[in-house]
Amino acid sequence: MPGIVAEAHRLVDAARAALANEARPRALLADCAGRLDQPLRIALAGSLKAGKSTLLNSLVGQDIAPTDATECTRVVTWYRYGSTPSVTAHAGDGARANVVVRRGGGTHGLTFDLDRLNWNAPAPREVDHLEVEWPAAALAHTTIIDTPGTSSLSREVSRRTARLLTPDEEQAVAVPGADAVVYLLRRLDAADVRFLERVGAGTGAAQGVSGPLGVVGVVSRADEIGAGRIDALHSARDVATRFAGELERTGLCQAVIPVAGLLAFAAATLRQQEYAAFEALAGVPVDELSAALLSADRFARPDVALPVAPELRAQLAERFGLFGIRMAVTLVRLGVRDSATLAAELTARSGVDELRSVLDVQFGQRADQLKAHSALTALARVLTAYPGSPADALLPRVRTLLADVHGFAELRLLGRLRTDELGLPPADLAELHRLIGGSGIAPHLRLGLPVDAAPSVQRDQAVAAVRKWRSRARHPLADQFTATACLTAARSAEGTLGLLPE
Ligand SMILES: Nc1nc2c(ncn2[C@@H]2O[C@H](COP(=O)(O)OP(=O)(O)OP(=O)(O)O)[C@@H](O)[C@H]2O)c(=O)[nH]1
Ligand SMILES: [Mg+2]
Q1: Cα–Cα nearest to 343, from 326, 325, 328, 359
Q2: Most buried among 119, 302, 328, 383, using CB within 10 Å?
Q3: What is the pLDDT of residues 303-355, one digit of tens each?
Q4: Of 368, 400, 432, which marks where a domain is finished?
């Protein structure tokens, strides 16, 4: 077991032993210990209808998360790996009920029937959250939590999401349910900023021990920006860049990426029949097709003459969106000749590949640190809330780890780099970002070298980086924040050096 996870485990176990006679802390700490052994938990959050469930389906590659207006989209739902599919409703008091899963008609995915639940308890309960176990490879190392929209019309629904990510408001002691957050926005509004500020309250310099350490932003339903023009992903990228600028000033996200989740999912599940339809549509004169694609209703109308049956057209519109159809037809016109190539091209243009790689760099490669940070944060809360036992003696060590673990420092700095003015030229800023793991934590990535660079070259580069960043940190004109950032970079370089063979 890696160092920081093992140390967090030891501390949690010691606290459990010391607080074994108190029910509430015992339960919280047992949960804490369990989480260290389980996959990383990533929550998808964002405003109502931002496309969270659709994005979850495209990340998993199967339509397991219900979309649109069914009751089950108003409940926090956990998606975990399981060898056989099952859906369970959990009540706040631990009671459970099996949930019947229905497959929707046509292109619709699953629906969870919450009307008839058989509780393993004498009386019906209110559902606190759902747990879906599903045999999907994407869930093997990551548990994904789908949340109801935060600025939803119902305050109660918003609260369910807030409780998961920023529990302090409602409960004296609680543990944030997620280790990292993907926040979806279609535009930036005050409610998003408020929510992100609350999530991020614990990640800043104050280490106010609150939310998870990793937050990545997604400009969602990116194809709808620019009114479905063929260059929508470019205009979406411009919007995302603007968002990124605004978000960076607030310091709320580590990265912002535009993603067309609907297109990503349709591409991942592209059917031969759909490919054939795009081929047929590519033969239609450009003006005629553009006129038919003015709206989804118009495109599916039987009296609009097109070489594809109206039902199939309706399916294309629902699965790909108008932008996706235009994009697919354009790609066929440009020479794509088979469905596998089309699927790959559409996937690349949806932005989901880029999101996957950012999630891997920011969350996947740092899963141990993120999990250990959640556990230590929770442990600090429990120890503070239940003083007066021998476990008190553990608190200083927990606080020291939260403040000093170098991986935590890197993550905090990654989150703040763009927010705060560092007194460094752009090239140095880029190098610092790379050194602290902004492009990935493998030594060659940190050092900016090719993957096959000789160990001696890597060592020389690492030694030079240690020298350079130590001396930057000591520069008499460096302000406090810049000096600390340079020292963090020097430590990252030292850590990298330690990983390289002699
Ligand atoms: N054009 C387009 N539509 C999308 C995209 N993602 C989602 N949608 C549509 O937006 C609607 C809402 O999508 P959901 O995935 O249910 O959104 P959500 O954020 O989970 O919604 P709630 O859970 O109800 O807050 C559905 O009709 C989707 O088909 C996208 O990338 N492009
Ligand atoms: Mg949803």
Answers
A1: 328
A2: 328
A3: 999 999 999 999 999 999 998 999 999 999 999 999 999 999 999 988 899 89
A4: 400
pTM of the model: 0.85
> CA 75 to CA 127: how far, in whole Å?
8
Q: Is the Cβ–Cβ distance between 262 and 352 less than 8 Å? A: no
Q: How far is the CA of 260 from the centre of ligand 1 (A)?
A: 10
Total number of domains constituting the chain? 3
Ligand 1 pocket, Cβ-based, cut-off 6 angstroms? 48-54, 67-68, 73, 148-149, 221, 223-224, 260-262, 321
Environment class of 183 (CB within 10 Å of its CB; exposed 0-12, middle 13-18, buried 19+): buried
Nearest ligand, CA of residue 218? 1
**CATH code of 62's domain:** 3.40.50.300
So what's the pLDDT on residue 53?
A: 93
Q: Tell me the residue range of the domain where 312 lies.
A: 268-346
Q: 212: burial class by Cβ within 10 Å (0-12, 13-18, 19+)?
A: buried
**492 CA from centroid of ligand 2 (Å):** 39
Question: Do residues 53 and 74 make contact, with C-beta atoms less than 8 angstroms apart?
Answer: no
